[in-house]
Amino acid sequence: METRMNLMENQLGAKLGKRFAAVGLAIQQSPLPRDLQELVMLRASQINGCGWCVDFHTKEAAAGGESAVRLALVAAWRESTVFTAAEEAALALAEEGTRLADAHQGVSDETWARVREHFDDDQIAALIYLVAVVNAANRIGVIARQKGGSYEPGMFAEMAK
Fold it and tell me: How far is the CA of 75 from the CAs of 11, 72, 82, 94, 146, in angstroms?
């Protein structure tokens, strides 16, 4: 499969991408821990099969100090012992919020209650927007067939400003 389009080389695509990145920057600056944000984005990206985003979030998490073991176990977080209860609640929300079409209830009341136990309202607002934004980014990456492997940590830091 060849990449269909490099949106950053298209004038309108680059303009829209900059606005999109600004939303991501607002979420990054929220009180939701940055390392947790990367884990959530990595899990949604794995589910959606976005190679570019899996590459991006794996490398950003590693650059931020995340361990190789935890990164490797994100896809199997339910069957591991390396995540906190708060991280598990956020990962469950990410999965259920990503797989809306697969579940008649969307995000379950049980998952919502677990999230409420561990996060305050500002963190939950950031988490909800994070799940929505990463899913949108995954769709952009999959539709344009952006390939993983070439991302370098910090590559888009200037774009978001």
Answer: 36, 7, 12, 12, 21
